[in-house]
Specification:
- This protein is an alpha/beta fold and 308 residues long.
- It has 2 domains: 172 residues, P-loop containing nucleotide triphosphate hydrolases (Rossmann fold); 61 residues, Alpha-Beta Plaits, CATH 3.30.70.
- Helix 3 crosses helix 4.
- Bound molecules: adenosine-5'-triphosphate and magnesium ion.
């Protein structure tokens, strides 16, 4: 049996003549959180829908723990919170969750028990008997996430789970994801455009552009690859430090620090420490700038556009 819990091989999805997903191959290891990022229309939602079997690939194959995409066995392993969920007009929150539970194979009693527990966990108790179709966008998102968890899936596909949520709810959702991953060794594939928040939960970054996979890396490896040799330094006299280094290096002043670019950061570190020591300055901050997911995204896309 493969060590991977999802394997996608050369998945392609065409809508008429338009190729939305193009020869996309990806393998997911269990227990890891994968962030799938890319511009609007890149093919993220289409890829997730193919993993769920709700869209059939035009070509290519895939499996979920050895089961074909879209098979009953695969669907039992997967929990899915789609980008947009449509709710039945006449169902209350508890009825909807119960119904989704029964659809996923739980008995009536099990489904009700699980529905009630998720309603508590997602703080929807006051709304349990109201019609979901009339919920606010953020509340619907929570119901959609609860629905994805109803049958205790091993793998979660979350398509923009925090879109339209208020800051507290976003944090709650992300904390829930973190806790679930830790406690249940869940595998998660999560898409989001809010990269600053995504980078706090993911281990691995998958980037897609025009339907093609353009990055598939551990986040730390990707950061290392795109590292640009920038040192952020602050001392009790940044102006003097600036004067001593400018000319030799590219130095910029930021609000409370200076940013120095060098090909050899280790040598630069030694030099900064020497200047600090020789001028009797007090060093407050010295660290290498870690590339944010935002910058990584920008650089990877610029590289791609340069290749076109
Ligand atoms: N049912 C469909 N019929 C025709 N074209 C479609 C269909 N579904 C998606 N597409 C097209 O496929 C491309 C990929 O769409 P997809 O929804 O997967 O993008 P995405 O990466 O999820 O974007 P976003 O960040 O905006 O959610 C888009 O150009 C979209 O217009
Ligand atoms: Mg989408």
């Amino acid at each position: 049996m493969s060590e991977y819990c999802i394997e996608l091989e050369n998945l392609t999805k065409k809508f008429g003549k338009f190729t939305a997903v193009d020869n996309f191959s990806l393998k997911l290891l269990p227990g890891k959180v994968y962030g799938i990022i890319g511009p609007n229309g890149a093919g993220k939602s289409t890829t997730m829908a193919m993993i769920m079997g709700s869209l059939h690939p035009t070509s290519g194959t895939g499996n979920v723990m050895g089961h074909d995409l879209g098979s009953k066995e695969a669907l039992q392993i997967l929990g899915y919170s789609p980008e947009f969920t449509s709710f039945y007009d006449d169902m209350s929150c508890v009825e909807y969750l119960w119904y989704m539970g029964t659809l996923s194979g739980l008995s009536n009693e099990e489904a009700m028990e699980k529905a009630i527990s998720l309603i508590k966990q997602y703080e929807l108790v006051d709304h349990a008997h109201k019609k979901v179709a009339k919920f606010s966008t953020g509340m619907k998102k929570k119901v959609s996430l609860a629905q994805a968890m109803i049958h205790d899936p091993k793998i979660l596909l979350l398509d923009e789970p925090t879109a339209n949520l208020d800051p507290t709810s976003r944090m709650e959702i992300l904390n829930t994801v973190r806790t679930m991953v830790k406690d249940r060794n869940l595998t998660v594939l999560i898409s989001s455009h809010v990269l600053t928040e995504l980078e706090t939960v993911i281990d691995h970054v998958v980037m897609i552009n025009h339907g093609k996979l353009i990055m598939d890396e551990e986040i730390s490896t990707a950061q290392e690859k795109f590292k640009q040799g920038i040192l952020v330094v602050s001392c009790n006299n940044n102006e003097l430090l600036f004067e001593k280094l400018v000319g030799k290096y590219t130095v910029e002043t930021a609000r409370d620090s200076i940013r120095i670019t060098a090909d050899d950061v280790n040598n630069l570190k030694k030099e900064v420490v020497r200047v600090i020591f020789e001028n009797d300055l007090v060093l407050n901050v010295l660290h290498e700038e870690v590339l944010s997911l935002d910058l990584l995204y920008k650089q990877a896309l610029e590289g791609e556009n340069g290749n076109e």
